[in-house]
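User: Fold this one for me? It's YczI family protein.
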Amino acid sequence: MLRILQFIFAVLGIAFAAYGLITGNFQFQNYMMLSLGLMFLVMSIQEFKEDRKAYGWLLLVTSLFTLFVTVQGFLLS
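Assistant: Here's what I get for YczI family protein.
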């Protein structure tokens, strides 16, 4: 189940990034950051389940930072 969620969030992030690069319209950049932050969160849960705590903590901090920046982006725009 976690692999499926990771794949969905990765595809969404790539789709939003490709749309922004192709059209030059970056209005969906916050959604791209949200999907990448959620992907990192799912990856950190996977790492904790596989007992690799160092990578789990690194991915958790990365996901929290990305989600914090995303929330600020939604509030300021």
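One thing worth pointing out: The radius of gyration is 13 Å.
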